[in-house]
Amino acid sequence: MIERVRLIVVSIAILTLMLGSPASAHTAVVADPVGDMATAASPAFDIVQAKVTERKGAGILYFQLELAAPVTETTGFGAWAFLVNAPAGSATFYGVVVRHCDRQVQAVCGANGYHWESALLTATGTTVGAFGFSVDGATVKAYVDPALLGDVGVLRWSANTRNAPAGGGSRALDFAPNSGFVTLER
Ligand SMILES: [Ca+2]
Predict the structure, then answer these.
(1) pLDDT tens sequence across 83-118
(2) pLDDT band at 6 (very low <50, low <70, confident <90, very high)
(3) Which of 42, 61, 150, 163 is most buried by a 10 A CB count?
């Protein structure tokens, strides 16, 4: 009985720590089927899960995609992107993009020759290298200062992938969610 009481006390203490932590996270996540791309392409473009998390203590929004296969640097053009509507329901949209590009195929790309870069797309243009990112196996992450997205209280997002630049009639390969947006309350 005493052991059980101890266990309960410890559990309450842990729960209190979790709830009271200044680094509490607000997360919005969506799962997506494997094999549902609009056209045949590398499974590295097939979204399995998309997630946006805010770590309040760190002051960073984490945009994360889990894919059906590892992303390799040997592929040609690739963009793993989030379309962000901030504030939610407004006319303001941003593109949070991690991409493998070459100026030969995408004019606003940061350099000649294939390389990885981040790009923030706004109504007024593209800023290359506006935020940090990582590409690790089948996981693509972007680390974005909320101020870059207007520092709003409620935003909406959807994720998509491409193996050809937007424009020129190419469509995204996969979306998560498949329609509409996911809402993140900060
Ligand atoms: Ca998918």
Answers:
(1) 999 999 999 999 999 999 999 888 889 889 999 999
(2) low
(3) 61
- Residue 149 CB partners (closer than 8 Å, separation 6+): 61, 84, 86, 94, 96, 155
Q: How far apart are CA 150 and CA 186, in angstroms?
A: 13
CA–centroid distance, 14 to ligand 1, in Å, is 36
State how far the Cα of 68 lies from the Cα of 57, in Å rounded to an integer: 31
Q: How many A from CA of 127 to the centre of ligand 1?
A: 28
pLDDT of residue 96: 98
For the whole model, what pTM was predicted?
A: 0.85
Alpha carbon of 158 to ligand 1 centroid (Å): 13
What is the 72 CA–ligand 1 centroid distance (Å)? 18
For residue 38, the CA-to-ligand 1 centroid distance in Å is 9
Secondary structure (3-state) at 44: helix
